[in-house]
Fold this sequence. Notes:
The chain is an all-alpha fold. It contains 8 helices and no strands.
Amino acid sequence: MSSAQQLSGNARRKMRSASRLYAVQALFQMEHSAQGVEPVVDEFLSHRFGAEVDDGVDMNEGDVDLFRGLVAEAVNWQAKIDQMTDRALVAKWPIDRIDPTLRALFRAAGAEMLTGEAPPKVVIVEFVDIAKSFYPEGKEPKFVNAVLDHMAREAKPDAFS
C-alpha cells in the first residue's frame, strides 16, 4: 500500500488534486522547454511537491504515482488524446490552435480518462477546478467542462448510460 493510500480520504483527495494540477504544469513545461518526461517529473518531485515557494506559501504534497502516471500516459497517448480533443472542438479550432495551458489540461485529463480508475465525472470536476485556478474570470472553465464531457463520453461511454 502506498503512503497516499494510507491517508484519510480528504488528505488523499487533496494530494490527488495537487497531482492533477502538477501534471498540467509539467505537460505545459515539457511542451515549452522541449524536455522529456523524466527530467520534468524529477524536477517536480524534487522542487514542487511539498516545497515552500519564495513568498512563504507551501505547495501541496501530491500523489507521486498519479502524477507520474498522468504525465507518462499523456505522452504515451498524446495522439489519441489530441484526436479526442479535436473531435470535441469546433472544426475551425483544432487542438494546436488553443491555449497551451488548455492543451496541457486536456492531455492530462484525457490520460486519466483513458487509463485511470477515477469515474469520468470526477475527472471532469477535478480538471474544471484546475481551469478555474488558471482562468478565474474567464469563460474557459465552461469550455473545459464541455470539451471534457465530450471526451469522457467517447473514452468511457458506459459511464454515462
